Amino acid sequence: MVQHHDTNHQERQSPVIASGAANHRKPRPTIIIIPGAWHQPVHYTALAEPLRQRGYKVEVAALSTMGDPDAIRAKTHHDDVEIVRALLEPHLAAGREVVLVGHSYGGLVATDTAAGFTVEERGAVPTGPDGGLQVQGGGVRAVVYIASPAVVEKGISLTSGMEKMSMGDPPANEGKVTLEDGVAKTSDECWKHLYSPADEKVSRAAFAASRRHHSVASFLSASAAGARDLRARLAYVVAAADEFTLSPAVQHRIADGMGPRCTKHVFEGAGHAPWLQPELLPRLVGVVTGVAED
Length: 294
Description:
The chain has one domain: Alpha/Beta hydrolase fold, catalytic domain (Rossmann fold, 3-Layer(aba) Sandwich), CATH 3.40.50.1820. It is 31% helix and 18% strand. The chain is built from eleven helices and twelve strands.
């Protein structure tokens, strides 16, 4: 079995950089957050703001696979990849580096978005028949997965990947989500599991802001890449108290399957949305800034 750097200690926090300080430094990567199923950009404000305070530009994608059932039924995760690639493209053109943060389903989108566009891959590319190489600059520096059922191998769907990693265990969200006519709908009481153990008021507000319907097709579309094949630094946040999507055991298997480029961070007491737990937020910010700065 491939050995990972596995850490559950407090990550080093980045100091807030004063305006105009350290101008000689390499520009900080832009951070693009990719939401999980049923989640909107507003859900990630608590994670985005501390990163901005540390001097990072942060963008949060608005995905196409959730919303009105008739509008989303035929949407696959590839439609969401196109959306995130559109956010990524200006940074590539400017030679800037980017860190992708994929929450839950967003990890599947992050992997396919990054494939072929990593800093390593863009570092030297053929320029023509003479075989010369050109340094393009910029690209995806790292991918952070948060409690994500990201597939580790190319050509399989999120659903197939989860079935493989579950090793026969029933899905954690069984009874919390209903599948009907190509749409996955969260139950009225789903908030208790989706955001537990976050504060009840915070959990209810987050659930009220969610889109209740998500395209089933996005869970069945085959990945164009596997996380273990990405030529970038990877980090996986194991939410050890997740009651919604993935048991901790499955999360560990996914992280281990990503290979030696992946560092696993075990968050004891973390639910499916750990940034909503104030006691865990600084450490989560540290995971993101850690891969952005190292």
